[in-house]
Amino acid sequence: MDVSTSHGPPWTKSAFLETPKSRADRRRAARLVELHDSIEGSYYWFGQRPNGAVFLHPFGLRYSPGSLFVNDSGELMGRGAWSAYRELKYDNGFAELASYVGLDHRGPASGFAIAEFEVDEFWEVIVRCAEAINRAP
What we know:
Layout: E1 2-4, H1 13-18, H2 23-37, E2 43-46, E3 54-57, E4 66-70, E5 76-80, H3 95-100, E6 112-113, H4 119-133
Parallel strand pairs: 1-2
Antiparallel strand pairs: 2-3, 3-4, 4-5, 5-6
């Protein structure tokens, strides 16, 4: 299932995958989409083009651990969602993801270059974060 905004042209999966400037970033984006799509029930929340993000929802879970976007230089970027949800603001379930990307889940959710990380390892951190933030209270 893919959910999108209603305030302008939303990203599509194929359009997003074609947007990163470098071939290496396009491959990274394709691998993340492949890993995400391999989990039954997973869906995306597509923001608006050209500056909106694509939120990943592994397992179809309510809260996304983070999003992907392409910056003005055409670089594939990520951003954690620890300040995106009022109910989960700075939740400790984001701690591993934030630490992995060199940030603090109690601080700003700054963008980070996906190229800085090994994609499959990054994905495993995303999955663990998704499970942690969507745990039953």
